[in-house]
């Protein structure tokens, strides 16, 4: 479908870089505890790695096609890549400045990072023993000099490029070597023993540097230097079309090929001598277009997400333990509860355990006959998976639709699919050309002479770990209007050739865009009649041109539109005679905003929805996504309060505009930090 691009449209990649800048702002914010700020540096770094592996790689593919090519937005891909690199370099400078400042802040708390030149006498034995016991067997030095080509650098790994020489004899040829830093086998940040009030940390990189004379003891050199380098590679999975191979085989091969994808970024220590850098560029045949980016002493800051808990408790966020849900806490049967009323859970404010309990109880309930679930991402030690296996062992008909193509979770999902099949669970792998991204559970139970269907519709993955840090919501219901449609979704995925009619839920790729356009049109009609017309939208990402155009039209007709968009927002708010009735904010705080939530005034007969779909073209056209109406008035009240608190946020909310300045919402009146206020709100429901 060809859609005219909006008059005002922020490039997707530029908008994403602006989002990641907001993450960097959290690392800069002195009101955040120091260790939490370090973790935000890790999140920023991990985000940027994935951005290069996926988005930059895709744009480069377009740029390298023969002839003059343009992106779907009509932009020149080479110009977009140039803009990206400029912004990335600016952010890198800012990142390095923040990191140095945080190191100084740690000093004020008597916490010191040591490098290999600063190791104190009392730590030397510990570091030598640690190297021998934990590190030495995990490193494989590769001598470069006699190799025709540079050793292959894996994606997402950090390497140490080593130069060995004698200072006194400049005519003697230097020796070069490469060492992969084994951060997958050994913690990247190591806590050293404390003998006084001071506490000490050291990077794994520097433990290796300190022990390099031992590693290269067979060489007779008096000087050894080592600098970090890193390559980011194209993460696109090229899946061959050989119909004789299973999807599992194809994906397994694709995952291996991902490690050898084309380089899209090369990062190096900016203190590296020029001769070393030139040698790498020559051996690897790197070009300027490969995004050669100078960085600091350390790379792969994603490891800082697991920064050690060290020092005073004030260096971390105060604990906010998940709260009980008054409808579900302590009940003997969750099914009995949702037979009588709809229940919503809001994470991480409330416990995720209720979803696991729902499955566990269904697994042993003698009247439950069928359990179906679709899985996108699950935890490494998933209690969800265990409950499903238990259900199969208890004779239930268990079907798991597992999306093998969930990016960067493919290997994990292949493993789970094999485990489930071995335990007698029916496993489906979704649809050709459509990723299944919905968050659904269906339980069928014999009751009297018939069956009752109980369902879960959510905004987030069935993942115990992320449920503690992602802000998401679940609806548990037996309402036939929703349950009957959810059953049709599972039928559609298992038998896609059969036509389905969905009467109440909104589903991609069928009708998500068209349904929301109809809802927006209703607000436009009300505005034209002089009636109140309001829309509140909460999404992670929004760049669908047709919906953006529709919102511009609604704004011009006087519809009041408020949006909370965490990440990409290609819509430009606040433009006179185009979007002056649209306000957009983004909230970045201790939890990752992940709920998709919608509220339409609808002439006073308010409509509320939650769902799995962002408003990106892929989510609307190339994924199975489910958005459900919320009929229960009590849950609607919860959602209204949830959205109101976010719209009042004047601590962690930033104003989204065309210039991407990421200015904080002006602090007028009482300070409102929405995530903390939301926690307090759900806590008040228990009183």
What does this structure look like?
A hairpin with a 2-residue loop joins strand 15 and strand 16. The protein folds into four domains: 1-109, Methane Monooxygenase Hydroxylase, Chain G, domain 1, CATH 1.20.58; 122-307, Polyphosphate kinase middle domain (polyphosphate kinase like, 2-Layer Sandwich), CATH 3.30.1840; 334-501, Endonuclease, Chain A; 507-684, Endonuclease Chain A (Endonuclease, Chain A, 2-Layer Sandwich). 41% of the residues are buried. The chain has 687 residues and is α/β, with parallel strands linked by helices. Helix content is 36%, strand content 21%.
The tally of helices reads 18
- Mean of residue pLDDT? 91
How far apart, in Å, are the first and last alpha carbons? 52 Å
- Coarse morphology: globular
The whole-angstrom Rg is 27 Å
Second CATH tier, the architecture of the largest domain: 2-Layer Sandwich
* Total beta strands: 26
| The named CATH superfamily of the largest domain | Polyphosphate kinase middle domain
Main β-sheet description: 9 strands, mixed
CATH topology of the largest domain: polyphosphate kinase like
Give the structural class: alpha/beta
What ranges have pLDDT less than 50 throughout 5 or more consecutive residues? Answer: 237-245, 254-259
| Percent in helix | 25-40%
Domains, number: 4
CATH class of the largest domain: Alpha Beta
Strand percentage: 15-25%
């Amino acid at each position: 479908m060809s859609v005219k691009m909006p008059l005002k449209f922020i490039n997707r990649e530029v908008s994403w870089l602006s989002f990641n800048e907001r993450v960097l702002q959290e690392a800069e914010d002195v009101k955040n505890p120091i260790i939490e700020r370090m973790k935000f540096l890790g999140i920023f770094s991990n985000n940027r790695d994935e951005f290069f592996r996926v988005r930059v790689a895709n744009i480069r593919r377009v740029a390298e096609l023969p002839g003059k090519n343009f992106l779907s937005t009509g932009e020149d891909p080479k110009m977009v890549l140039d803009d990206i690199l400029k912004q990335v370099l600016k952010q890198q400078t800012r990142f390095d400045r923040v990191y140095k400042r945080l190191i100084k802040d740690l000093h004020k708390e008597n916490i010191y990072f040591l490098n290999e030149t600063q190791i104190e006498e009392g730590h030397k034995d510990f570091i030598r023993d640690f190297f021998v016991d934990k590190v030495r067997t995990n490193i494989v030095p590769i001598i470069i000099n006699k190799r025709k080509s540079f050793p292959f650098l894996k994606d997402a790994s950090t390497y140490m490029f080593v130069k060995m020489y004698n200072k006194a004899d400049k005519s003697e040829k230097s020796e070069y070597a490469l060492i992969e830093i084994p951060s997958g086998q050994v913690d990247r940040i190591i806590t050293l023993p404390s003998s006084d009030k001071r506490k000490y940390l050291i990077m794994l990189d520097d433990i290796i540097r300190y022990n390099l004379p031992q590693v290269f003891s067979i060489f007779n050199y008096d000087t050894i230097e080592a600098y970090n380098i890193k390559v980011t590679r194209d993460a696109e999975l090229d899946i061959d079309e050989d119909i004789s191979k299973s999807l599992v085989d194809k994906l397994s091969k694709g995952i291996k090929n991902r490690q050898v994808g084309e380089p899209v970024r090369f990062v190096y220590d900016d203190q590296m001598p020029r001769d070393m850098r030139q040698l790498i560029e020559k051996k690897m045949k790197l070009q300027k277009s490969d995004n050669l980016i100078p960085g600091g002493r350390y790379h792969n800051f994603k490891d800082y997400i697991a920064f050690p808990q060290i020092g005073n408790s004030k260096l971390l966020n105060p604990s906010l333990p998940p709260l009980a849900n008054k409808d579900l806490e302590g009940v003997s049967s969750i099914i009995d509860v949702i037979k009588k009323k709809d229940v919503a859970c809001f994470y991480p404010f409330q416990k995720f355990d209720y979803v696991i309990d729902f499955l566990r109880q269904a697994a042993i309930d003698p009247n439950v006959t069928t359990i179906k679930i679709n899985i996108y991402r699950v935890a490494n030690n998933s209690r969800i998976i265990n409950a499903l296996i238990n259900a199969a062992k208890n004779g239930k008909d268990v079907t798991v639709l597992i999306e093998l193509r969930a990016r960067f979770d493919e290997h994990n999902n292949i493993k789970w699919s094999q485990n489930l099949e071995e335990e007698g669970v029916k496993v489906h792998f979704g649809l050709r050309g459509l990723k299944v991204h919905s968050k659904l559970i269906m339980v069928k139970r014999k009751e009297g002479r018939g069956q009752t269907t109980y369902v879960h519709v959510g905004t987030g993955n069935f993942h115990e770990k992320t449920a503690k840090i992602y802000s998401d919501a679940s609806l548990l219901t037996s309402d036939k209007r929703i349950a009957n449609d959810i059953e049709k979704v599972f039928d559609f995925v298992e038998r896609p050739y059969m036509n389905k009619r969905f009467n109440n839920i909104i589903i991609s790729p069928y009708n998500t865009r068209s349904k929301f356009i109809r809802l927006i049109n209703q607000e436009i009609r009300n505005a034209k009649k002089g009636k109140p017309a309001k829309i509140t939208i909460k999404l992670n990402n929004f760049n669908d041109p047709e919906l953006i155009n529709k919102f511009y039209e609604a704004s011009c007709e006087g519809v009041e539109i408020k949006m909370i968009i965490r990440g990409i927002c290609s819509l430009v708010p606040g433009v006179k005679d185009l979007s002056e009735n649209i306000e957009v904010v983004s909230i970045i705080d201790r939890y990752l905003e992940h709920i998709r939530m919608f509220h339409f005034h609808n002439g006073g007969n308010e409509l509320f929805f939650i769902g799995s779909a962002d408003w990106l073209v892929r989510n609307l056209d190339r994924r199975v996504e489910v958005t459900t109406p919320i009929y229960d008035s009590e849950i609607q009240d919860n959602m209204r309060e949830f959205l109101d608190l976010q719209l009042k946020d004047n601590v962690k909310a930033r104003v989204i505009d065309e210039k991407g300045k990421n200015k904080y919402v002006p602090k007028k009146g009482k300070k409102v930090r929405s995530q903390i206020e939301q926690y307090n709100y759900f806590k008040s429901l228990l009183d």
